[in-house]
Amino acid sequence: MKRINLTALVSTALIAASLAAPASAEIGRHTFKISNGAAEDHPVSAGVKGMSACLEAKTDGKMKLRGFYNGELGDDAEATQSVRSGSIEMVVTGAAAIGGIEPAMSAFELPFLFTSDAEVDAVMTGPYFDHVAAKMPAHDLILLSIWENGFRNATNAKHPITTIEDFKGLNFRVMQNPIFLDTFRRLGANPVPMAFGEVFTALETGAVDGQENPLPLIQASRFYEVQKYLTLTRHAYSPTPVLISKTVWEGLNPEEQDLLKTCAADGRVKQIERSRAAVNEAVTKLKEEGMEVSELSPDEMGKLPELVAPVYQSAMQTVGQENFDLLSAELKKLRGK
């Protein structure tokens, strides 16, 4: 009869136990640099801080984020490219910076796509999010969550906009984006593509009459100093995808990956809460600064879908028919159609 080697048995048991040990024992120390183009007092920072607090709480401080703001690590396009290459770990970027590489994200640039915050939240956490997320690894990116910049509104220095006719003849700065350019042409305005950093001076000198952006950004950029009229058009919605480098992602173990997804979702709750509170605060502040705030009547708003319908047709080459059909089907389901 063979003698049992007790030492060997113990060693084998220890090895087996170590292999079966919970993944929590393997969590390493990670400080992820995360870039954003907005100022630190913008609502996006609430998401960054909320996500970091979640990670720190769940890992005893081993995992956390280090936020960089004001485009310190590059503008949206530059920072996104740096994340793709792995030189920056994470970015909270504009959808337009992703739309150039993934058509499924361009669908969000279509005008008057969403009718409410509830629709936004359902789509940004539902099947269409999963559809977009599945496409991102091919671009060396992993989509963790989608936060928001918010609904966009129009300002100008000429006159109130209370009817569609009031857009005619106004020179509007818009993003360097074909869908936005087409939208404002259809509204009757003269769209002028321009980098965001040039907007204040262009408004101040009268090179353009107006611009369009989410309300907190209008306030933070002090556009009220060079714009008199604000119209709550909510003509487009700007999401802000939260992305991590695929190279960095693949260097993490499954538990670390799950923690990032969980905490990105937790950060979204904090970011959305702050973003929507900031919208109400911005309206009050802009009025206090002397801006006249107006809205289009329900009848005028009802004319807009037909007016901008050609934008949808011309955008299909950019957005992709399959992507548009998936998103449209999800919205119809949400609306009970």
TrEMBL record:
One GO CC term of this entry? outer membrane-bounded periplasmic space
InterPro entries per the record? Answer: DctP_fam (IPR018389), TRAP_DctP (IPR004682), TRAP_DctP_sf (IPR038404)
Query: Which segment of the chain is annotated as a signal peptide?
Result: 1-25
Q: Which UniProt keywords apply?
A: Receptor, Signal, Transport
Domain of life from the UniProt record: Bacteria
A single BP term in Gene Ontology: transmembrane transport
Q: Which Pfam families match?
A: DctP
Q: Which family does it belong to?
A: Belongs to the bacterial solute-binding protein 7 family.
| UniProt-recorded name of the protein | Tripartite ATP-independent periplasmic transporter solute receptor, DctP family
